[in-house]
Amino acid sequence: MAIRRWGIVLPDEVRKMRDEMDRMFEDFLQPFFGTTMPSIGGVTIPEVAMPLIDVVDAGDKFVVKADMPGVDKEDISVSVEGDTLEIKAEKKEEKEEEKAGFLRRERAYRSYYRSLALPEAIDAEKINATFDKGVLNIEIPKTEKKEGKKIEIK
Fold first, then answer.
1. Is the Cα torsion angle 117, 122, 125, 131 positive or negative in sign?
2. Summary mean pLDDT of the chain
3. DSSP letters spanning the chain
4. Which residue segments constitute the domains of the chain, with CATH numbers given?
5. Fewest C-beta atoms under 10 Å: which of 1, 31, 37, 54?
6. 11-40 in b/e burial notation, b at 16+ Cβ within 10 A?
7. What is the pLDDT of residues 42-79, one digit of tens each?
């Protein structure tokens, strides 16, 4: 039996292969974008955007810069969970305009998520974050790397 998709008739074997490929990509992308992957016209899109980042080793600290346009400082959350730095932001907007004879409503939703593995030699208690003109700047101070210890065998 053939299935019609996007106006094209797909034989069963091609449909099965396509479905398997879709599942494979969804399984691969799930850790990055979460469990819900909406689709438009059969094309899967993520609900959450990954902000573009720069990571710079500035000698005594790491500097992470994340582009988060259209987000307010109050909508951003930066946290450290174990050895992972998490950046989250969520912005919801609703505009309403009522003029003679019509009502216009606009809604927008923007969400960002990014996680970075941190090296062991950082001081998580002294991480500093600032936000200015759509750019999140996170300074992560380094600590002295603990050297391994040679164990004497008795």
1. negative
2. 78
3. --EEETTEEE-HHHHHHHHHHHHHHHHHHHHHH-S---EETTEE--SSBPPPEEEEE-SSEEEEEEE-TT--GGGEEEEEETTEEEEEEEEEEEEEEEETTEEEEEEEEEEEEEEEEPPSSB-GGG-EEEEETTEEEEEEEB-PPPPP-PPPP-
4. 3-44 (no CATH), 53-141 (2.60.40.790)
5. 1
6. eeeebeeeeeeeeeeeeeeeeebeeeeeee
7. 544 445 678 888 888 888 888 999 998 888 899 999 99
For the stretch 125-132, contacts whose Cβ atoms lie closer than 8 Å and that sit 24 or more positions apart, written own/partner, are 127/78, 127/80, 127/85, 129/78, 131/68, 131/73, 131/76
Q: What is the pTM of this model?
A: 0.59
Q: Is the CB of residue 87 less than 8 Å from the CB of residue 115?
A: yes
Write the secondary structure of 77-111 as one string of H (helix), E (strand) and C (coil).
EEEEECCEEEEEEEEEEEEEEEECCEEEEEEEEEE
**What pLDDT is stored for residue 31 in this prediction?**
59
Output the CA angle 51-54-59, nearest 5 degrees.
Answer: 145
